[in-house]
Request: fold
Amino acid sequence: QVELVESGGGLVQAGGSLRLSCAASGRTFSSNYVMGWFRQCPGKAREFVAAINRSGSSTYSTDSVKGRFTISRDNAKNTVYLQMNSLKPEDTAVYYCAAGPASAIQRASPTYWGQGTQVTVSS
Reply:
């Protein structure tokens, strides 16, 4: 069993930055899982934001955040990060950390979900 705990959410003005962290505990995951971030706005489906492979050598992100968001991981700390710059009001959502095989992340059906952290961007 793996537990994912997000932190770093909050309220920020448009154009500002936040860094989300996701700490994994329960069993060593560093070499086992692709890690990802998803987000969900009220009344909308959860959507993929970014993912990173097991070694951290490859990353993937949705078009709307490319050039603004950066995903990274520190396997020694069992932690994945999402650096969010140039934030826009439309980035407002609950952000969820996820872990699982690449195919599961691609299907938005990861093995493990975090509890979510709220990000609010004011205009």
